[in-house]
Amino acid sequence: MPMPASRDVSALTKPQVFEKWSADAAGLRPNALEQGDNVITMFDVVGEDFWSGGGITAKKVASQLRAIGDRPVTCQINSPGGDMFEGIAIYNVLREHPQPITVQVMGMAASAASIIAMAGDNIEIGAASFIMIHNCWVLAMGNRHDMRETAEFLEPFDQAMVDVYAQRSGSDAKKIAKWMDDETFMSGSMAIERGFADALLDADAVKVDEKAKAQDREVNDLRALELELVSAGHTRTDARARINKIKGTPGAAVDDATPGAGEHLTDLLGLAAFLKS
């Protein structure tokens, strides 16, 4: 597959979406909903996550489906998205399952996670939950020819998302493309009205885990700083190495009880603010 400019392109979620997920939806955990061994929880970013060691991947989902076997499956989603290409792969893995798929949007299904949600034969969403759709978003560098090549490269991926949304929702493709251009957040009732969901979840279906919410916010700060450094011209590997050096805990999770780890978060946020100025 041809790639523009550096030939190293990843479709990502914008930092602002991570911030909204952290503020409004992170830390959501199932409460009243019945659990079982046929439930797949997707409460993470889409794709392997360097900073937490987690992430929702097609490989993991395929493994869970094999363990569930030839039975109906419920997928519970609270995700800001991440790698669009991985999201498409997960969507296809779920669509290949021989039994019905029920998707429950517990907090947010944004960006790549909204693609995954469309795999549901039945899609349920909380009244205060959101489905967000937007165009494929990347970090790219180069001259005007490189930028034009990047734009042309991304067009078929945006069209692929339009096709997925239109097929599942029944909404007009041109309207969907406009919603993607506008980066649209759909509440539960709006998602149902536009065909992106079928019914509301029970009001007591979820609760907020404050500890998990705080941890998610800290990891989101690191993700945002990584993107700022990459935007400033650093490679992803170099950006992660620099952040780990400042953090003082190379390769460790954010909440590790390592002396000095928490003290450096303020330094990291200050650096992010400096890069934005």
TrEMBL record:
Report the InterPro entries cross-referenced here: ClpP, ClpP/crotonase-like_dom_sf, ClpP/TepA
GO BP annotations of the record are: protein quality control for misfolded or incompletely synthesized proteins
What is the top-level taxon of the source organism?
Answer: Bacteria
Q: Name one GO cellular component term.
A: endopeptidase Clp complex
Which Gene Ontology molecular function entries are recorded, alphabetically?
ATP-dependent peptidase activity; ATPase binding; serine-type endopeptidase activity
What the entry lists under Pfam families is as follows: CLP_protease
Task: Identify the Gene3D superfamilies for this entry.
Answer: 2-enoyl-CoA Hydratase, Chain A, domain 1
Keywords on record: Cytoplasm, Hydrolase, Protease, Serine protease
The family note in this entry says: Belongs to the peptidase S14 family.
- Identify this protein by name: ATP-dependent Clp protease proteolytic subunit
Q: Record the organism.
A: Devosia soli
